[in-house]
Amino acid sequence: MDPRVARLNTPEDCEAFAANASKRGRPDLAQEARMRAIDLRAEAHGAATDAEREALAAVYAYEEARSSGKRRRFRANRTWQMIERHGILAAVERAVNRPDETIGYTALVEMGLEKYAFEAIVLRYPGRFTKEAVARCAERIATWKGSGLYHSTRNE
């Protein structure tokens, strides 16, 4: 991470930095700043484990991807309600166990944020999820890789 981005302490600072970097033709720095903002939001949420922190970051990344290019910020209200009811990891489990892929994956890919997909998090922390969820996520990511939608080395 660029030292200038690492020094940013708030999501708002990161967003301002990202906007300035984009204007100055530095999409790489803008991307780093957006990712830093996502991580800062997740850290502020108070996760107890790395798996929880990354899952929260995934929700913030999804909101960021859906907000991109719009005047208003998108809020993942249904996801936050599920997190309140069931907890973050149980909410991720429920989301990935749906028959269809998790909503927003394409938006994450378009922003270069696919490492924040719930499926990727499940595979990074397989011990925190059921075997069925891990198998479903592995199958989905294999399908995405086959179609060129998943780039496991980007942003990791």
3D architecture notes:
This protein is mainly α. It has a domain at 45-147. Helix content is 65%, strand content 0%. It has helices at 3-6, 11-23, 27-44, 50-67, 77-86, 88-96, 105-110, 118-124, 131-147. α3 (27-44) crosses α4, α4 (50-67) packs antiparallel against α8 and α5 (77-86) crosses α6. The N and C termini lie close together (11 Å). The mean pLDDT is 85.
Describe the structure concisely for a colleague.
The chain is mainly α and 156 residues long. Helices cover 65% and strands 0% of the residues. The mean pLDDT is 85.
Q: Determine the N-to-C terminus distance.
A: 11 Å
Cα gyration radius (Å): 15 Å
Fraction of residues in helix: 55-70%
What is the overall shape?
globular
What proportion of the residues form beta strands (DSSP E)? Answer: under 5%
Indicate the mean pLDDT: 85
What assembly state would you assign to the polypeptide chains in this entry?
single chain
What is the helix tally? 9
Query: How many extended strands?
Result: 0
Major sheet, described briefly?
none
Q: Which regions are unreliable across 5 or more consecutive residues at pLDDT < 50?
A: none
Instruction: List the helices and strands in order.
Output: HHHHHHHHH
